[in-house]
Design brief:
The protein is mostly helical and 175 residues long. The chain has eight helices and two strands; from the N terminus they run ααβααααβαα. It has one domain.
C-alpha cells in the first residue's frame, strides 16, 4: 500500500473514531449539493483514493457534472454511495439535522484533522496542494491515470504515527 494511502486512511480512521457514537440517517440529502449549498472540497490524496475505488470496481471516471438537482456523481440511483469506503473527509464529517448522537459533534477534534490532510496534500503536490470541489476533480482527471508522487518521507508523521486501516462507521453502502 502506498505511504500516502496509509496516511490518509489513518486520518479517516481518526475521523471515524471521533464520530462512532453518532448515527447517520442515510437519507442521502447531503449528497445533493444544490439542496445543501455545499459540495465537498477534496484534496489530491483524497481524490487519488477515490480514483482507486472507482477503477477497482470496474467503473470509469467521467467528467459528467452533477445532475440538474446537484446530485453527487458518486450517488447511485438507489441513493447509496458508490465510494463509501473511500469518501472524503468532507463527506465523513457532514451531518444533517437528522443525525443522532450523544451530544454535540466534536467539531474541534475533527478540525484538528484538516491540517494533517493539508500537509499530506502538500507532500504529494507541493506546487498545488489546495483542495478543489469534487466535480472539479472529475473534470481535471479526465483521461489521466491515477498516480501519486511527491516526497513521501514525512507521511508516517502526518498519519499521527498510526498507519493501520480501521473499519468505517456503519451506514448505507452500495452493495
Amino acid at each position: 500500500m502506498n505511504d500516502w494511502r496509509h496516511a490518509l486512511l489513518a486520518i479517516y480512521a481518526d475521523a471515524d473514531h471521533l464520530l462512532e457514537a453518532f448515527r447517520c440517517s442515510a437519507s442521502a440529502d447531503c449528497c445533493h449539493f444544490a439542496w445543501t449549498g455545499r459540495e465537498p472540497s477534496v484534496t489530491l490524496p483524497e481524490w487519488l483514493l477515490i480514483e482507486r475505488a472507482v477503477r477497482s470496481s470496474g467503473r470509469r471516471l467521467t467528467a459528467a457534472p452533477p445532475d440538474r438537482d446537484g446530485t453527487c456523481p458518486f450517488l447511485s440511483p438507489d441513493r447509496r454511495c458508490r465510494i463509501y469506503e473511500s469518501r472524503p473527509l468532507g463527506c465523513r464529517t457532514y451531518f444533517c439535522s437528522r443525525a443522532e448522537g450523544p451530544g454535540q459533534v466534536p467539531r474541534r477534534s475533527l478540525q484538528a484533522l484538516v491540517p494533517r490532510i493539508r500537509e499530506l496534500s502538500e507532500a504529494l503536490s507541493p506546487r498545488d496542494p489546495s483542495p478543489a470541489p469534487m466535480t472539479s476533480w472529475l473534470k481535471k482527471t479526465r483521461g489521466r491515470q491515477p498516480g501519486g508522487g511527491g516526497d513521501t518521507r514525512r507521511l508516517p508523521a502526518l498519519a499521527g504515527g498510526r498507519l493501520e486501516q480501521a473499519p468505517c462507521r456503519a451506514a448505507r453502502r452500495e452493495k
